[in-house]
Design a protein that fits this description.
Length: 170
């Protein structure tokens, strides 16, 4: 049996509650090997205020991915060259949702004139972005709701060539 490709559509204001739930489920169910429970809770709190979360999504180019008509993931492009969020519901992992969202944002960023696309990838998402040609540039520590979390700034040259890591070493 073949799987259907995820369908993509733009964000609508009524989507905020569902996307907040996908965001929280993705964090709590998929990041446990890389982040403590306290870190996960602090991170997921970013969606507790659904109105503020929805306002942030509406202020960026946000795409929603659906499988069989049900939204299962979303991604947002901040400005022309920064993937700000990319989250997939745990039930849809491995079904091409993240790849479809990332590819769409890469095409949009390129069409908007971006030469490089950046993302601050969680430890859980590092391999996903590496497989898509993103190269680690800098390790970061950020404070979210009183908890320290680590991520890695990665970038991809949109003409298809991989950027060099800092210092020129792979």
């Amino acid at each position: 049996m073949s799987r259907s490709a995820p369908a993509l559509r733009p964000y609508l204001p009524d989507d905020a509650p569902l996307l907040a739930a996908i965001f929280a489920a993705s964090i709590t169910d998929l990041t446990g090997d890389d982040y403590s429970e306290a870190q996960q809770e602090a991170w997921a709190m970013a969606a507790e205020d659904e109105a503020a979360f929805g306002k942030k999504l509406a202020g960026q180019l946000t795409l929603i991915a659906s499988l069989q008509g049900a939204p299962v993931g979303f991604a947002s492009l901040k400005g022309t060259d920064h993937i700000d969020m990319l989250y997939v519901h745990p039930s849809a992992v491995g079904q091409g949702v993240g790849a479809a969202l990332c590819e769409a944002l890469e095409k949009i960023a390129g069409a908007r004139g971006a030469k490089l696309l950046k993302v601050d990838a969680s430890d859980t998402a590092l391999d996903f972005f590496r497989k898509r040609g993103y190269v680690a540039q800098q390790r970061n520590s950020v404070t979210i709701n009183g908890e320290w979390l680590a991520n890695t700034t990665m970038q991809k040259t949109l003409d298809g060539t991989a950027p060099s890591p800092p210092g020129g070493h792979a």
